[in-house]
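Take a record.
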Amino acid sequence: MKDERRKARRRKWKRFETATGAVVLLNKPQLKGILGTKRVELGPIVNISMGGLAVEYVENKHRSQTYSELSIYFPSEGIVLDDVPFETISDFEITRMPDDKAIRKRCVEFGKLTTYQLFQLEEFIKKHGTKCLEDRRRNDTDRRKFHDPRYGDPGYEDTHPERRIGKDRRRM
């Protein structure tokens, strides 16, 4: 029997919070691109990196459709980055509002960007990125150990073996 586990995606780029006001617009081609594109406002950017971004939005029928390109709009500057190909990595509900509308968070990964788009994205992050976000992955020093004095409980009897290594970790 083969153990097929999905490999976790690891971030390759640092994520940055953005200044308030940056909005994601979804590009919807009209009549197979002949009449241009219609832009649907998705919502404000939560964080952004050179590899993708996260955006929060209120769900409706236009925003729930599938799109393949997005644009980044900043009110004082107009469209900062246009026609960026993307793929949705995750889209999940955060909470419900009293009128039963859902607030969702969508995380997207950018597709192949042109050299000019990469330059524009880098400049946008330099100009509007406010704070570098830490990854939530734990390293060895942050993991809880069996005999860790920080988690001492006088009524706890330790019946666990010492820290296991390699394949032994998965057995119990």
Remarks:
- Residues 15-127 form a domain with the Thrombin, subunit H fold (CATH 2.40.10.220).
